Amino acid sequence: MASESTYVRKGFGLKAEVQNTLTADYDGKLVDLLLAREYTLTAGDVTIRLAKEFGFCYGVERAVEYAYQTRLKFPDKKIYLAGEIIHNPHVNAKLKEMGIVFLKPSDKGFDYTGVEPGDVVILPAFGVTIHDFETLRAIGCVMVDTTCGSVLNVWKRVDAYAKDGFTSLIHGKYYHEETRATASQVEKYAGGTYIVVRNMAEAEDVMAYIAGTFPGGREAFLAKYAHAASPGFDPDVHLKRIGVANQTTMLARESLAIGEAVGQTMERVHGAEYRAQNFRTFDTICSATQDRQDAVNALLTEPLDVMLVIGGYNSSNTISLAALCAEKVRTYHVEDANCIDPEQGTIRHRDLATGKEVSESGWLPASGPLRVGLTAGASTPNNKIGEAVTRVLQTRGVDPASVA
Description:
By secondary structure, this protein is an alpha/beta fold. The protein folds into three domains: 152 residues, Cobalt-precorrin-4 Transmethylase, domain 1; 89 residues, 3-Layer(aba) Sandwich (Rossmann fold); 136 residues, 4-hydroxy-3-methylbut-2-enyl diphosphate reductase, catalytic domain (Cobalt-precorrin-4 Transmethylase, domain 1). Helices cover 41% and strands 18% of the residues. It has a five-stranded parallel sheet with strand order 1-7-6-4-5, covered by helices on one side. It has a five-stranded mixed sheet with strand order 2-3-17-12-13, with helices on both faces. Strand 4, helix 4 and strand 5 form a beta-alpha-beta unit. Helix 11 packs across helix 12. Its cofactor is [4Fe-4S] cluster.
């Protein structure tokens, strides 16, 4: 671990000093009004229903606050950020306005060429890989670590798996910053291995290989998953002992289902005693992610005409929320309020099937009673939620100023 003078994980004791700025940048009056009115706002014939858990989580608040503290603590130092602090374009834009330089990622980690010992580097809420951490420690710069505690909890599981000779089967997106950082934890141990599966379909490939039924055998499996597995991964060797973990922002029920299904497969192929000795699984979805998914499920039991999900298009937890909503009601995942054009009656949104942004007209009926469900990913600030509410009302010809 880096020395106390170059490694900071608990902030600089400047919370009170930055609080007013944070409030001005991210708080939203309309959201406050929704909370005061039991998560319901009615104006004209439009009713907005807000999920009871939404928006900024503790880990995100902490990361953003520490970034603001860092700028205040070091007004004259060059400050870098390893990637994005969180997956929200407006928050990241604010940090850039504060003079924080964003380092660009690559397949081998971030480019630290210009970082010098006198500089400061902020580690994002997702964490960074062991390689990145060691590179920064060697430089000797000040590291401000905002890695979320829920992410650290997953790292502990993966560390224990590797230490005991288990391959980490990670439910996540192999390219996501958090998953890359999590997977790198196996590097602490000689021969540590991992494989990342995006969904149940990919987990089923792993289960098929364990059962000896994967089409094309070893070479076909490696051709399909080499990009998502540790160097030198050999399914004949490394799928004998498995520990399941997950990216903290994935769909919780799918993570749990993958863990149970892989365990059952190992038991069916090798027996119950073998499973007990060679298979482990833990629910490492973060509580904030779970709370937001539970709140959306509760909201979806009510009659809704449309669901609006607000958050970055690259925000995994927001994508999971949108997927849940789409199962029950017509759903639009928008990056921010600017995606809604009241004058034209159009909406730009992330297509849930393709992941690409598309535009749609007439997304809201012109008249008649309307019930709109609303939630936001854990990296979406309240002011952006409030702005979206404003544009929904304007689309229906309701003056937001009349809501008081």
